[in-house]
Specification:
Blueprint lengths: L2 E6 L6 H14 L4 E9 L8 H9 L3 E8 L5 H8 L6 H12 L4 E9 L11 H8 L3 E5 L5 H14 L4 E9 L5 H14 L3 E6 L7 H7 L14 H8 L4
Parallel strand pairs: 1-4, 1-5, 2-3, 2-4, 5-6, 6-7
Length: 240
């Protein structure tokens, strides 16, 4: 798995912090890591973007960003409004492959969900994953409404014969409600893929040293961690 594409069921689901956790766990396992952010939106020229935040939390790694646009919009819209060239899927594919020649693991973090458009032709992160033949990790929210978007994303990937490696809950609440507890069992069911981790709410606010120490405990062995789905289900009180 030299390249892993990371997407979310939407915005603000914990995708960047999850990317940092995956990176931190891989680094702890002795792997070299690169993080590629194809299109960064809503960030000024001198401000740190998502890739920089991943590096801050996870530790020494390579970061790459193909374009950034000032307004917090979908990349295609942000590029058009800024009067700048959009990012094309083939550019993302080429950049990921180049990084993979020098790193054990390349994490490609999308913007928003799987089908958010990069350009006016409708290119998406799904096209990137399909061209790379890379697996996808889906970051999902914990609560009500997540099953629909998770199911839709999984169906789109299956229609393209792209592997859904698994689902990670991007922010597990301190006091989960009934929907969140039930979703621990339902997310693997609707996605057809295993639950590979759950990050505690507020994980991104930890000091970097504490984040790096804790990260492997949030992710399953498939992601270089020690987290166990069955034990998490029991702690969450998942019932019938």
């Amino acid at each position: 798995m030299p390249i892993l594409v990371i997407t979310g069921t939407g915005t603000e689901v914990g995708k960047t912090v999850t990317t940092a956790a995956v990176a931190a766990s891989a680094l702890a396992a002795g792997r070299s890591v690169a993080v590629l952010k194809p299109a960064q939106t809503g960030v000024g020229p001198a401000e740190p973007g998502d890739a920089a935040e991943v590096a801050r939390l996870a530790g020494p790694l390579t970061t790459a960003e193909l374009a950034r646009y000032p307004e917090p919009l979908a990349p295609a819209t942000a590029a058009r409004r800024a009067g700048r060239p959009p990012v094309r899927p083939y550019e993302v594919v080429d950049a990921a492959r180049k990084l993979a020649t020098d790193h054990d693991l390349v994490l490609v973090e999308g913007a928003g969900g799987l089908l958010v458009r990069f350009d006016e032709a409708g290119g998406t992160l799904a096209d990137v994953a399909q061209s790379l033949r890379a697996p996808v990790l889906l970051v999902a929210s914990a609560g009500l409404g997540t099953l629909n978007t998770t199911d839709l994303t999984a169906r789109e990937l299956r229609s393209r014969s792209v592997e859904l490696l698994g689902v990670v809950i991007g922010s597990w609440p301190n006091s989960p409600d009934l929907a969140s507890r039930c979703n621990v069992a339902d997310l693997p069911e609707v996605s057809g893929a295993p639950l590979l981790g759950a990050l505690p709410a507020g994980a991104g606010t930890l000091a970097p040293a504490d984040f790096r120490t804790a990260a492997p405990g949030w992710l399953a062995p498939r992601l270089d961690g020690t987290w166990q789905a069955e034990a998490f289900r029991e702690r969450a009180g998942v019932g019938g």
